[in-house]
Amino acid sequence: VHRENRGRDAIEIVQELPVMAGPQPGGQGVRSGPVILPRIEPDFVRHIAESMGLTNLTINGNIYICEQVSHLLKRVVHNAHKFSIHGRRSKVVGADVEAALKLAGLEDLTPLGHTLPNPPPMVQVPNVFGGEDLFVPDDIEIDLAELREHPPQALPAAPYLR
């Protein structure tokens, strides 16, 4: 958010944002109109700063952080939506958000969600349902004797907030 936007209502700023348009499910054409994008509130930033031990954050610093994070979030959401349109999808997927984060220079925040370091092995089941091949996850045998000998690790202490 630019300096001239300071002190203005969030609704006024959102109404001036470019409209994100794209194909609608069911072939209804292109959606138009203002898109309400998220805005980070100063109370939320103050609460996060206090939970991190930063108690001397000024009001101007708090507002500046809110504006910068809100602007970055809007830019990432807008770019992710553009990636989904270029990919001819009606919904934004995780890969679109990761590409938008990479475009914003935030590669450290990717990958999003859960990723498996080693994908499960797949086994081919031939001639199923009209001659098509089917791939299913391979059943992994677990040695119960080994699990019995090695008890699970102790859980860490419960987290607490000050």
TrEMBL record:
One of its GO terms (biological process) is RNA polymerase II preinitiation complex assembly. It comes from the Eukaryota. Pfam families: TAF. It is found in: Nucleus. Keywords: Nucleus, Transcription, Transcription regulation. Its main location: nucleus. Residues 39-102 form the TATA box binding protein associated factor (TAF) histone-like fold domain. One of its GO terms (cellular component) is transcription factor TFIID complex. GO terms for molecular function: protein heterodimerization activity; RNA polymerase II general transcription initiation factor activity; transcription coactivator activity. InterPro entries: Histone-fold, TAF6, TAF_TATA-bd_Histone-like_dom. Belongs to the TAF6 family. This is Transcription initiation factor TFIID subunit 6. The lineage of its organism: Eukaryota, Metazoa, Ecdysozoa, Nematoda, Chromadorea.
